[in-house]
Amino acid sequence: MGVELLTRDFFDRPAHEVAPELLGRVLVHGDVGVRLTEVEAYGLPGEDPASHTYRGRTPRNAVMFGPPGHLYVYFTYGMHYCANLVCLPEGHGSAVLLRAGEVVSGLSHARARRPGVKDRDLARGPARLAVALGIGRPDNGLDMVGNVMTGGPVGQVASGPRTGISTGVDTPWRFWIAGDPTVSPYRAHTPRRRNSAATSVQEAPPSS
Q1: Is the whole model's pTM more than 0.85, yes or no?
Q2: What contacts 24+ positions apart, CB below 8 Å, involve 185-190?
Q3: CA distances from 161 to 17, 39, 40, 136, 168 (A)
Q4: Can you give the pLDDT of all 208 residues of the chain as single tens digits?
């Protein structure tokens, strides 16, 4: 069976429907291809409090309101980029966060970007995945239709609460390939505590 590229219609659906069907697909950016093993869906403005679009359109999240199949890249913790694929028609504001995967092509390039890291961990986590693929701020808004294709068998797909968020914590929109070693560990949100030396503590933004 030949390789099948995903069309824009694939992404023109609710994120929680697209997300589990992304598992096992191979996303290619530059010289590296990653087989997706873990993703999270983020919903519509006013409906999903964990989504970046919950309070409406801003300069930061504008790409999420654009055409489906485009890459939404955001900066978090002052040091990491994370990558999402936009879902639903233009104007809606929804996306799937790419949380983890297995590097299946361009391994030498991924290793060069993350030296000294085990191959299993090259794209194990959303920030690591972005680094392995060489995704950064200039890629925000990049059209990825034609860069996501079918992969191998998936096996059992598991679902559960999204990781590391403080709102919408019970929504079971995290999807992963059960038993895959590249899936990142689940972490519940832990509020940061203030101390006497701190002048301010800001909670981390939602994961998409």
Answers
A1: yes
A2: 186/160, 186/161, 187/163, 188/161, 188/163, 188/164, 189/164, 189/165
A3: 15, 11, 9, 27, 9
A4: 467 899 999 999 999 999 999 999 999 999 999 999 999 999 999 999 999 999 999 999 999 999 999 999 999 877 899 999 999 999 999 999 999 999 999 999 999 999 999 999 999 999 999 999 999 999 999 999 999 998 878 989 999 999 988 899 889 999 999 999 999 988 776 665 554 333 222 233 344 4
Give the span between the Cα atoms of 42 and 19, in whole angstroms: 9
Q: Is 52 exposed, middle or buried (0-12, 13-18, 19+ CB in 10 A)?
A: buried
Q: Which two tokens stand for residue 31?
A: 């010289």
User: Measuring CA to CA, which residue among 186, 196, 206 is closest to residue 51?
Assistant: 206
What span, in angstroms and rounded, lies between the C-alpha atoms of 135 and 81?
Answer: 7
